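User: C-alpha cells for this one?
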Amino acid sequence: MGNWQNCRVLLDSASQMSLISEECCTNLGLSRNSSSHTIIGIGNQIVGNSDSFVKLEFTSLLHPETYLVNALVIKSLTTNLPNFHMSHYHWNHIQNLQLADPEFHISKPINIILGADIFFELIQGNQIKGAKNTPYAIDTKLGWVLCGKVSSRHEIPHSQNKFVSHHTTSNFNLKNDIQNFWELESLPQENSLSNEEQICEELYKSTVYRDDSGLYTVKLPFKPHHKLGNSKSTAVKCFYSL
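Assistant:
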C-alpha cells in the first residue's frame, strides 16, 4: 500500500502500456514487481528500458471512483508539458467546465502516462469545440481534458517551443528474441570425430572417384583383426544345403 498524492497525468492512446516516472513511484512508496521491458518510440527507436512495474491505483480530483492499472517504471517520461505557459483566459468554451487539471496551462513535469490499456475506459465521448486554434475539451471520468492545436499567439513570451510526439510500445521479450536470433544465425559447431570416424573420413577422401559410367566409387572401410562371432558352422551348413 503506497501513499496518496496529486500527480500530473498525460492520457496517451498511442502508448500500449501505462508508465510512471521513477521519482513519482518512489514518492508514492509503491512496491515494485520485477520485469524486463524495452520502450520503443517514434521511428522504431529504443527510448528507454524498464526493469519493474507497479500496480497503480488512482482517482480523479473530482470523483471518488478509483481505477487500477499496471504501470512500467521508467526513469524519465517526457519533457514538461505543455511546452510553454499558455494564456487561456479568453477560451470561453472551457470557462465553466470542471477540468481534470485546473493548472493545465502551466508547463510542468508529467508523472504518469495512462496508455491504451485504460485510455478508452476513461473517455466518455462528449466534446466541446472552441474557436480556431484553441483546444478541444473532451469529457472523461477524471474531468474535462484538453487536446488539439493551440496557436503560438497563446504562448506567454520567453518560452521555448518544442514539439512532443508520443507513441510507445513495449517489447516484453527482447532479451529472449535476441538470444534466439543469435542461436538461429550462429554457424553450426563442428563435432569432433572419433578415431574410427576419422579413418573413414580419410579413406573416403583418398579413394573416392567417378568411373566412366558416371558412378562414384569408394573403398569400404574394414576393421582390421575384427573377431567374428560363432556363426561359421551355421553358415557352412547353409552353404552345403544350397
